[in-house]
Design brief:
This protein has about 100 residues and is α+β, with helices and mostly antiparallel strands. The protein has one domain. The strands form three sheets. The chain has a three-stranded antiparallel beta sheet with strand order 2-1-3, with no helix packed on it. It has a two-stranded antiparallel sheet with strand order 4-7.
């Protein structure tokens, strides 16, 4: 399994290298994360956050770890929906033909 997420207009972060990546956000900004998983299953993702005072080396604060549970299922391809709709159409046509 490989975990991958990115911030809009920022670089991507993924777990292929051990997931020791750092994201830097400007003061007063916020970000939305998008997660992508490569396989179905249940995943625990633990995140922490910290702040550095005035771009120095002094850590201002570090959050407690927050763990999120993700349940991942496969999403059918659009062609699967087309196949289902086609099968239903043929079944409906066959029913109408039997009635007449």
């Amino acid at each position: 399994m490989r975990l991958h997420f990115h911030l809009k207009n920022h670089r991507s972060v993924d777990s292929s290298d051990g997931f020791n990546d750092t994201l830097i956000l400007k003061i007063g900004s916020h970000a939305h994360y998008n997660f992508a998983f490569t396989a179905e299953g249940l995943y625990n993702v633990t995140l922490t956050a910290s702040g550095i005072l005035n771009e120095g080396s002094q850590t201002l604060s570090t959050s407690d770890p927050a763990t999120f549970l993700f349940g991942v299922n496969a999403v059918p391809e659009p062609s699967a929906f087309a196949l289902i709709a086609g099968g239903m159409t043929l079944g409906f046509a066959a029913m109408r033909r039997r009635r007449s």
